[in-house]
C-alpha cells in the first residue's frame, strides 16, 4: 500500500547505505558534487543505527543493495555494466548481483516444484542439483528429465518475492512524489510514470508462464540469427512459479579469463552483442530487455546464448522507424534531420526552434565520432543530454524507457568484452539495412499492400458499414437541426413577444384615432 508509512523505508535505505559504508563509495564513484555529499551525510548519519548491516563478506555497495531488497538489486545490476559511469572498482563489486546472490535451500525449491506442477519432483526429474545460480528474483537448478534423460535448467521463484517487490516499489512511488513536490521542474520527466512503467515490467517478470511464452516467441524470431541461441521451453514442466528450459552449456559473459582461455574473439563477441540487440529491436520490434552479463553465455562453439526472459521489450513499427532515423542521422552527422524527426514524432514541443535543437544535437554527437569508446565519458555525455532535454522542454517518453535502458546495458556489456568498441561503427550496417528495407519505396509499397489486406477483410461488410455511416450522418443532421431549433426557440419567442406588443400598441393607437 502506498502512503506516508513508506517514509520508514526511505529512512532505512539511507541508514543502510551509511551503515554498510556504501554511501561514501557510491558518492565517490559517481563524483557527486560537495553539496550533495553534505546533504547525504546530514540525512544518513543520524539514522545510521537503523540500517541493515548486510553480509560483511560482501563489498559495501553490494552488501547494501542485497540487504535492501530485489528492486535495489535490479538497479545495481544495471550499474554493474557501466564502469565508465560508476568506475571500474564499483562496477566489479556490483557484478556479484547478476547471478551470485545467496540461494535459498534446495528443499524449498523442490516444495515449490511439487506445489506448482502438482507432482512428486522425483517422478519428474531423475536428478535435481543444488542451486547453480541465484539472482534477485529466482534461482536455477541443473536437472535431468526422468522420462527422456534430457538435461534441463529449472528456474524457481524465491519464496515471498512478490511481497518484497511490492514493498520496494511502493517506496519508489513515495520517492517520485517527493521529487515532484520539492522540485516541480522534474515533472516533465514524469517520475511517477517511470516508476509505474518499472512496476509493470517487474510484475510481469514474477509470472514464469509469461517468461516461458516470451522465450518461445524470442526463439522463433531469432532462429535464423547466426551465432545466437535461445534455449527451448519444456511447457509441461513449467508454471507460474517454476519454468524449465533446455540446459545451456557455456561460459558466463562476465568470465573474461575463461573466454580468453577458450580463444574466443572478444572484440567480435562485443560487436555481435550490440548488432544482435539492434536487429532484435529494429527488425523484430521485440528484444531482450535485461541483457546484462549474467544473462548471457558463450558456448564452446562461440555462440552467444541468451537466458532469463522475464523482461522483454516491444516497440511498434512507427517507433522503430523513428528510432532508426535518429540513430542513422547521428551516424551521418545529419543533425538537422535528427532534430526534424524529434519534432515530427512529438518528442519536442512544436513551438521550439528546430535549428537551435539541431545545433544542440551537434554538440552532443560531434565529440563521439572519430574516438574509441574508452575515451568517451558516458557520464558527461548523459549530463549534457539532460541539460539539452531540459532546455527544449522534452518530456520523458515512457514507451521508450525500456529501450533506452537496455541500450545502456547492452553498450556496457559490449564494452566489457571489447573496451575499444566504437558503437557507431558497429551500429551503422545494421541501421542502414533497416533504413533501406523500411524507409524506402519498397517499404512504402509494403505498407500499401498491408493496408489493402486489412481493407479486404472488411470487403463483405463494406456495404453495411456505408449504410450505417449514411444513417448516422442523417441522424447527426437531424440532431443538429433539432439542437439549432432549441437554441433559436428563445429568440423566436422574443420576436413573437415583441411583435405582439407592437401590434397591441398599434391597435391602441388606432383606437385613439377613432
TrEMBL record:
SUPFAM superfamilies for this protein: Protein kinase-like (PK-like)
Positions of transmembrane segments: 494-512
Domain ABC1 atypical kinase-like intervals: 97-342
Domain of life: Bacteria
One matching Pfam family: ABC1
PANTHER family noted in UniProt: CHAPERONE-ACTIVITY OF BC1 COMPLEX CABC1 -RELATED, PROTEIN ACTIVITY OF BC1 COMPLEX KINASE 7, CHLOROPLASTIC
Protein name per its UniProtKB record: 2-polyprenylphenol 6-hydroxylase
Originating gene: ubiB
